[in-house]
Task: structure prediction
Amino acid sequence: MSELNLGLLTELTEERGVPGHEERIRKLVRRELSGIADEVRTDAMGNVVGTIEGSGDGAVAVAAHMDEVGFMVSHVRTDEEPFGFLEIEPLGGWDPRVMAAQRVTVHTEDGDLPGVVGSPPPHTDDGDREEPELDDLAVDVGLPAAAVGERVSVGDLVTLDARTDRLGETVVGKALDDRICLFAAIEAARRLEDPEATIHLCATVQEEVGLRGASAVAAELDADLAIALDVTVANDVPGFDAGERVTELGDGVAIKLKDSSVITSPRVSRRLRTVAEREGIAHQLEVLPSGGTDTGPLQRAGGARAVGALSIPTRYLHTPTEVAHLEDLAATVDLLEAVLASEAANDYSP
Result:
């Protein structure tokens, strides 16, 4: 397994950045790309593009998104109880059952404020309690109503408070979706030496609310090929049959064939498989029945282009305890490096 800079991975995953408010993670990405790319720029939407100039023809866009699922304060309740509470609006897809009793951070103009999502104790359960809805969630910051009204405003952001840790052969934490792929792209690019193709490293915004940033990037970049990096479902846990697993941890990087947003270009997928086999890199194939990725807009925004996608199998997506295997991460870095190092002005037309 390739040596991995787990300190950087931890820094990326523990930083906060919900859709449309990715400034903290953007600062880290720009810092890392500035030591790798010949040019680093940020567009009006907040996407970051670092360009490594190639020695020949052809250009490749590699994209991973910066944003994580989170919440925005929609109402500050200060007139019903002695203590104040916050109602929140989701930014991205959430299962409300996951949020009960979670620690969160409220990002206010005056600084970060710790909080918890309330969860009634079982002692008061009469057996008729319904499954929670997102509208039922309220954040408790432990302050009197007047203080909450002074500190928190509608539009303030709320993120999960979770550490990134080793868990056996895996890593666990929040925002592996998609910071682990940002990490993979950065590490692969760091290893490149004089690539023939020009490489555009794209850290996109607002993926979790409609693949928005990638649409803007794709319309502006003149790339012959685009490769998206994202996590994917790994239902290799009790309760799922083999055909429902999609991918499995430890079986290598996943080469995407389809998801809800895209059918990847067959010639690109074949090249990814060929390079993986040639280099002896563990890999598996991914057919994701639902859920979209930046691959879709990269394929068609601003005109048609060839696309492929590499995915890191991840358990428990959109929770504070997303889990990915370190060997799958290493395989993703190795395959992306090998593909970019050998990429030229290839013809991927049907």
